[in-house]
Amino acid sequence: MQHSLSTPVIGFAGFSGSGKTTLLECVIPHLKAAGLRVGLLKHSHHDIEPDSPRKDSYRLRYAGSDQLLLATSKRHMLFFEYHDTPEREPSLHECLIQLDHSRLDIILVEGFRDEVLTKIEVYRPSYGKPKLHAEDANIVAVASDEPLDSLAPREIHSLNLNNAEEIALFVRHWLANASDEEKYLPYFNDKTARTAHTIE
After folding, report:
1. What is the Cα–Cα distance from 147 to 143, expressed in whole angstroms?
2. What percent of the chain is predicted at pLDDT more than 90?
3. Which of 5, 69, 114, 142 is the most buried (most CB within 10 A)?
4. Residue 24 contacts by C-beta under 8 Å, 6 or more apart in sequence?
5. What are the phi and psi torsion angles at 84 (to 5°)?
6. Is 9-44+90-196 in CATH node 3.40.50.300?
7. pLDDT tens digits, residue range 128-151?
8. pTM listed for this prediction
9. What angle separates helix 20-33 from helix 164-177, to the nearest 10 degrees?
């Protein structure tokens, strides 16, 4: 059973400062070396400005366009501007459907900690933050910089946060062996997704 948006999704969840971005920066090259086409979706609570007032794209966005696609031979950048809508956090699903799934084998998600998707927790005991896996049944592995005495009473894999190759191997194994429910969980879970996209 494969979803019509057919790219598996796995998240990297953890509290701010746990090292999610640094870990992904090290894991992605291993996945690319294995031949995978990798998409990345990063959630931020901060306002972002990816270009400067000197750039044409900036001038055209601030002229009032609601969407702008900047296309070059090397990359495309798509901007969505929400001028007239109340400020709210984007949902995981609405971000996923903006990606070109035909060019991807896997999507890695950084953030969206509270959304329903299969996740690897990035956990540093020394930070004194709560363990997410104790409350989140969708966490399938914990990457930690210290050995963990115990994990939640279910099958959760323990990974070495300082070994990006090991974590990349886990992601590849998950991609090859996980159930469709685990791989496509955001699509199965989202009500909008269920009505707008059929399960084949």
Report:
1. 10
2. 50
3. 142
4. 12, 40, 108, 110
5. -110, 15
6. yes
7. 999 999 899 999 999 999 987 767
8. 0.84
9. 60
